[in-house]
Each structure stands twice: as C-alpha cells, then as structure tokens.
Amino acid sequence: MTHSDSKPNAKIRKVEDAIRAYALAYPETHEDYPWGECALKVKGKVFVFMRADATGFGCSVKLKESHVEALDLPFTEPTHYGLGKHGWVSCSFEPNDKVPVALLKLWVDESFRAVAPKSLLKQLRTAEESAAKPASAVKARAPVQKPKKGTKKPPTKRAKAR
Predict the structure, then answer these.
(1) How far apart are CA 123 and CA 146, in angstroms?
(2) Domain that holds residue 65
(3) Is 137 exposed, middle or buried (0-12, 13-18, 19+ CB in 10 A)?
(4) Could you tell me the pTM of the whole model?
(5) Which pLDDT score, from 0 to 100, does residue 148 have?
(6) Contacting residues for 121 by C-beta, under 8 A, at least 6 apart
(7) Is 150 a domain residue?
(8) Structural domain count of the chain
(9) pLDDT averaged over the chain?
(10) Which of 32, 87, 107, 134 maximizes the CB count within 10 A of its CB?
(11) What CATH number is given to the structural domain containing 100?
C-alpha cells in the first residue's frame, strides 16, 4: 500500500475513522506513522496498517485463524514485503466501493489477539467475561434469619415428603 497526500472522500474517511476508533478502543494501543501510513500498535507491535486517500482505503491485518478464507475474497491479497507468509492479509477498496466495515472489525479483533502479549489478552478476557454476565446473574442474597431461641425450625421439603 502506498501513501498519497490526496485526501479521501467522506465515505472513505468515515470507514477510516470507524476502523481507527475500533482498534484504539483495545487496551494499551496507540497510533504511529512509521512509513507514511497509519500503524495501529499494541505494546509497540503493529496489528493494523491502514491508509485512506483519494485512491481509496486499504488495510493489512494479521489473521492466524481466517487468513485462508480472507484470501478468497476479491478485495484481498497476501501482504507484501514477506508478511503474507506469516498470515498478514491486505485489503483495498476504491473510493466508491462498499467497504464491509463489520468484517474489517472482526479482522482487527483477530489481528489484535494474534499480536498482543498473552498477559494483556488474559486481562481482556477477564474484562469481557465480567461485561458479559447479565445483571440477574449477580443476585443479592437475602440475609438468613435464624429462628429465635425456643422455637422450632420449619420443616424442610424432605421432612414434609415423609
């Protein structure tokens, strides 16, 4: 992917903004511009290369799980510079193409998980599990009331069945 100084149209800018915001929402991520295009990194390691200009939108992600399926799509190819043999996939879109943003977000997620340190992934899983628990799963227990001295305990269900 080459970088052009020409500005992207509004549609491409919206795609770029959506992917950037999604990627930067992951913990300990930041944006860098090492070769004139955007590199989104986690702990200093790139998990997304991205460019948007008048020629369209393009990005590269590391897909350990879905790279074979991704490469079957008409807008993808193995990433150049030898990265393709390590699971990196590049996609490119012309200014008026329909960009599958939801799919690209899935790829960003997969790429983040392929590149991020295991300790960070463990923290992320813990946070995801906590967020996934419905409020009803965290029930407040009613305090157990002890019978007053000298009173009998109410019979249990087992005792009633006898």
Answers:
(1) 41
(2) 10-126
(3) exposed
(4) 0.76
(5) 60
(6) 113
(7) no
(8) 1
(9) 85
(10) 107
(11) 3.90.1150.30
Which residue from 56, 60, 76, 51 is spatially nearest to 12, judged by alpha carbons? 56
Which two structure tokens, joined as six digits, stand for 59?
Answer: 């990005």
DSSP character at residue 84 = G
Residues 62/87, Cβ–Cβ less than 8 Å: yes
Decide if 42 is inside a domain. yes
Residue 75, in any domain of the structure: yes
User: Contact at 8 Å (CB) between 89 and 80?
Assistant: no
Query: What percent of the chain lies above the pLDDT cut of 90?
Result: 67
Residue 155: half-sphere exposure toward Cβ, Cα within 13 Å: 6
Can you read off the two tokens belonging to residue 50?
């991205």
pLDDT tens, 95-151? 999 999 999 999 999 999 999 999 999 988 888 888 887 655 544 444 445 556 665
Q: How far apart are CA 43 and CA 45, in angstroms?
A: 6
Q: Which one, of 42, 17, 30, lies nearest residue 119 by Cα?
A: 42
Which pair of structure tokens corresponds to residue 66? 């879905």
